[in-house]
């Protein structure tokens, strides 16, 4: 079936999503490039709904060129047919599907700090990029992060808002919209009520009349901290398998718990299967899930090299001095960090399905070390399991030799065709 957008023809492959009055199709351009086409029926849409769709397109245009946002290719409003077509960069797999797939397998359901650390950093990079453009997404959830060539990107800016002026740090909204499991307290409360409750250490109550303002409707104020709260909810779900308020039966009760300062969020030190949760992960969750938005960290702060979760001290092994210079012992933890760095820096090769679903777990590589399948001495003519800190080309050779990027793919080429040379890789002891 052929679909048209502004006169250009696209071949419909299949339907990859639907919701409300819209459907999303995987389509092929005349060049053969795969794209996503969102087709929205406006037959029953009111003026506010149409305005929302147009607002999403305007925001995508504002975010054009932002690397961590799904790119807008084209759009068309057909007045006669009452349809809106939005042509977008195609995401290969969303985070919700990835998490659900992992939880359905015995190994994937177990807490994997390496997997969590990688995707947590990816999410932070995505949100930091839109915050840098003074855009608040307002509906962050796993389904709105998609993998494109091995990297996460943000989608669905239908209820996002741009902060209008340099003097303002919030967007104002007269309706409460979002996904309850990931919505912040301030997104569920009138701005005056939230300000009063927050300033009184969470004690509920209404502000005095002189603080209520003259607005005829309840108005919520949402800023960048609201997105940080949502990120904390996703991190919580990655750790414990369920969002922080997910066990509460009804949506109304869930919302009431979110805005109730007295309702303490539980951060178990052990998962249901008895796996210990690293304290640095709990610290990150607590910081994000602080009901006082002024006390939540920014994405920039959480991405800092001093963050104990992203850059834990146990991943910084002591530097060993040898006759040939400084070297690092190759441990499982260090190897995990290297794999993450490679995954982030090698942009030219599409990830295999196995790599995406595996989450770059290091066990397979470490097993190869233990079984003596990888001859590091033969590669570098050094002590086994030691690599140079300074010589980045030797690091590339090491990764090349170990075939770290494609351990599961039966259709992969030889390691030397995977683009290490062009995807210049480097790391230092602080990142290790």
TrEMBL record:
Domain of life (superkingdom): Eukaryota
PROSITE patterns recorded: PROTEIN_KINASE_ATP, PROTEIN_KINASE_DOM, PROTEIN_KINASE_ST
Keywords assigned by UniProt, alphabetized: ATP-binding, Kinase, Nucleotide-binding, Serine/threonine-protein kinase, Transferase
Pfam families listed in its UniProt record: Pkinase (PF00069)
Domain Protein kinase: 10-310
Gene3D superfamilies assigned: Phosphorylase Kinase, domain 1, Transferase(Phosphotransferase) domain 1
Residues holding ATP: 38
One record GO biological process: meiotic spindle assembly checkpoint signaling
GO molecular function: ATP binding; protein serine/threonine kinase activity; protein serine/threonine/tyrosine kinase activity
Gene Ontology CC annotation, any one: nucleus
Segments for region (Disordered): 196-220
SMART domains: S_TKc
Similarity section: Belongs to the protein kinase superfamily.
Annotated PANTHER family: DUAL SPECIFICITY PROTEIN KINASE TTK (PTHR22974:SF21), MIXED LINEAGE PROTEIN KINASE (PTHR22974)
Name under which the protein is recorded: Protein kinase domain-containing protein
Natural source organism: Phyllachora maydis
